[in-house]
Protein 1
Amino acid sequence: MPTASGSAVIAAVYATAGALACWALGWTLWNGLAEPGIALAFWVLIAVGELVGRGPDPATGAGREAAPLGVAGALAYALLGEAGGRPTTHGVPQTVAVVLAAGLVGIVPHVARGRGPALDPLARRVLTVGFAATCFQPLYNTGTLGTWVASGPVYPLFLIGLLALTALCDAVLAAALASARTGWPYGPLLRDALRALPGIGSAICATGVVISLATAVAGLWALPVFCLPLLLTQFAFRRFAAVRATYRQTIASLARSTEIAGYTPHGHARRVAALSRAVGRELGLNAPDLDVLEHAALMHDIGQLSLLDPVPDGATVPLPPAEQRRIALLGGAVVRQTGVPTEVAVIVERQADPYRDQPVTARIVRTVNAYDDLSGESAGPGGALRALERLRLATAQDHDPGVVEALARVLARGGRAV
C-alpha cells in the first residue's frame, strides 16, 4: 500500500488529470466536434492501439502499461495542424477529449478480466497529450508557429523537440507514480525511465511526428500506412518479452534443483532473489543490474549440488570461510555452463569473498542470503530482529554496512520486493 505521502502524490496527479479531462469533455460537448471525420479516425486509431495489446512502456521500458500505437496516435493528433492540405481547428480540449474517450475504451478489457482499470497510464496520457497540444495548437492556429518556423526542416525538428520534452514530462510522471505506489527511491526510477526513452520512446515520438506530417499532406490515408512500422515494432518487443520470461523461468527452475534435491529449504532461492532485488533498488541499481542481481540470487546456492552431504538446513553462513568460497566457486562453474551472462556467474563466485573485494551485487546476495539463513523457521520468535542484529555486528568484515542498512529499510516497509 502507498504511504501517506505517496497517496498524496497519486491523488494530486489524478486530480490534475481529472480536472483537465472534465474541462476538455465539457468544452467539447458544449461546442461540438470540429472536423468529426478526423476526430473519429484518430479516435479509432488510438482505441485500436489500446486494444491491440500492451507493449513496452516508453517511460520505463517495461511491458505492462503503455500501448505504443495508441500513444503515437494521441501525440500525432495533438500535433496535427493540417489534414490533406486543409487547416484543422480541433484545438486543445478536443484533443484531450478524443484521447480520453479512446483511453476509456482501452481499460475495458482490464475491467472485463477483473483486474480493475489501469488508471495510472490513462492519467499520464491525458496530462502529457494535454501538454503537447497546449504547446502546439494555439501557436499553430494563431499563425505564430508559421512565423517562427515557416518552412524547411525546422518545422519537423520543432515537432521532434516538442515530443522529446513531452517524453521527459511523461518519464517524470511515471517515476513519481511508481515511487508513490511502491515506496522505492524516486531517483533510480527516474533514471530507469530516462534510459528507456531512446528505445521504444524514440520510436513512438518519431511515429507521432511522421503521422502528423504525413496526414497534413496525404490526409487520413496516412494513418494506417505509417502506423504499420510501430505496430510491427510492438509485436517484436512482445516476442522479446516472452523470450525473457521463458529465460527467467528456466533460471528459476534451475534454482529449484537445490530444493528438490533437499540441499536448501523450500522457497529459499525465491526469497533471497526477491529481497535482493528490493535491496538493490533501495541502493539505486538500474534495471539491467537488478535483473543480473535477481538471476544470481536465484542461483546462488547451486554449488551445493556438488557436496556429498547437504549442509544442515542449507545454511552456508556457519561454514568456515574457505568452505563457503569453495561452494561459491563450484556454483559459479555450474552457472557458467548454463549460458547466462558472465556477470551472474561472477556474483555467484564472489558472494563468499570479504565484502570490500566484492561488487555491490555480490555484497547484496551475501547479506540477504545470510539474513534468510539466520531468520528461518528454526530461529523462532524474534528471529528476524536477531538476524538483522547479527548482520550489523558483522559489518567489520563480512557485510557491507550500507547493504545491511538498506536491507533494514526494506524490511521495515514489510520486505516489499520487485
Note: The CA atoms of residues 7 and 180 lie 7 Å apart.
Protein 2
Amino acid sequence: MDAGMLKGELKLKIKLTNTLILKSQAKEKRYVISDTETAGLLAKIEPSGSKSFYCEYRNPYTGKRVQRRLGYTNEMTVTQARELVQKIRVSVKNNGEDPTQIEKKMRERLTVGEIVNLYVPWLKIHRKSVRQTIIMLKSFSELYPLIAEEITSNDVTKWKQNCKNEKTGKSLAPQTINRRLALIKGMFSWAMREGHISSNPLRGNVEMLKEPDMNRIRYLSPDERERLLNALNKRDAEEKDYLRCAVILSLNTGIRKGTLLHLRWEYVDWERKTLLLPAQIMKGGKTHIIPLNSIALGALADWKKRCNPSDGWIFPGDTPEGHLGDVKNPWETLLKRAKVQNLKWHDMRHDFGSQLAMAGVDILTIKKLMCHTDLRMTLIYSHLSPHHINSSVEKLSELYTKNKGE
C-alpha cells in the first residue's frame, strides 16, 4: 500500500472491497483508504470505529478539493458507493455545479408555512386590513410543511377537494376558493420579488374553478322586500343590535360590506345629509361623498341612540381595530326568517343600483352613487330601465309633430 498524509490523516491507496472495509480496524488517528478502481472514492475509518464513504472532487468555482460524505459503510456496498461517486464527478464536470452547495441551498429552501410567517408582518405594514387575509391563509395549513418551490398542481387539487368552511364544514363556493388561490399566488409572487424563492410554483400551474355568472343581478322583489323588512323590524325589537341599521344603510346607499363595517360616526354629516367614504376604506382607494336619504338617516339616528358613540365606530366589534368583523350568521338567520332565498349581502348593492335604474335614474348618476371607477361596471344595470330609454327616444318625435302642425 502507498501511504501519505492528507491534512493530518494517514492516506492509503488500495482497491476497496466490502471485506477489506469490514476487516479495517480503528487506529489512534483517523485514516483514509483511497480506492484505486474509482477516482475520488474514499473510505474513512475513525478512531471511534465508525466507517464512512466519501466522494472527493474539485470545486468548479474555487478549484479547491472537496470531500463530500456519502454515508456509513454499513448502509451501502462498495459497488453502490462507486456508482454514486461516478454520478457526482460526472455532474460536476458536465454541469459545473458543486453538489454540496446545491444541497445547502436545498436545505435552506422555505416551506409554505415559513413564507406565510414572513408575509403576514409585511401585510400588516402595507395593507389596510389583514384580518380576513390571515384567516384565508390559515386555510392552506395542510400545505404549510411543503417546500414552497415544490408545490404542484396535484397538491393544489387535493387542497381544493378538502377546502371547507372552517365553522360549518361545508364546501366553499367556487368564487371563494378562487379568491384564496389568488391570495396564495400573490403571496408567492411577493416571496419571489423579495428573493425568498426563485420562482412562483403556482404561476400558470393552477386551474381556477368555474364561477357562476358574476354579472348576475339579484335584487329584491316587492314581496321579498316587505318580508325582509318585517323580519328585520321583528328581530330588531328582540335583539336591539346593529343589524337593522346595517341592512337599511346598505339597501339605501349600496356601499360594500367592507366599507360599511369600517364606518365611523365622524363620517356622517347630519346637516348636509351626506356620508364621507375615505380612500383608506374604499375598494378603489379613492375618497367619495354620497348622499343619505331620510330612511338611511333615520336608521343611523336610531342606532346612535342605542350604541356607544364614544367608540368612534358606527358598528363596534371585537376585531383588533375595534370595529365589527362580519355579519354572516345574523344575516343568514334573518333571510331564513324572511323566507328570502339566494340573496347575498352584496346583492343589496345590486338592489340599490337596480332600483335606481328602474326608477329612471341616468346611468352616469348611478355610476357616481355606486362609486364605480369604470362605467362598464355600471352598465350591467342599463337594461333594467327600458321605459326610461324609450321615453328619451320618444322626445325626438316632438320635433316632427311640431313641423307637421305647421
Note: Residues 1-7 have pLDDT under 50 and may be disordered.
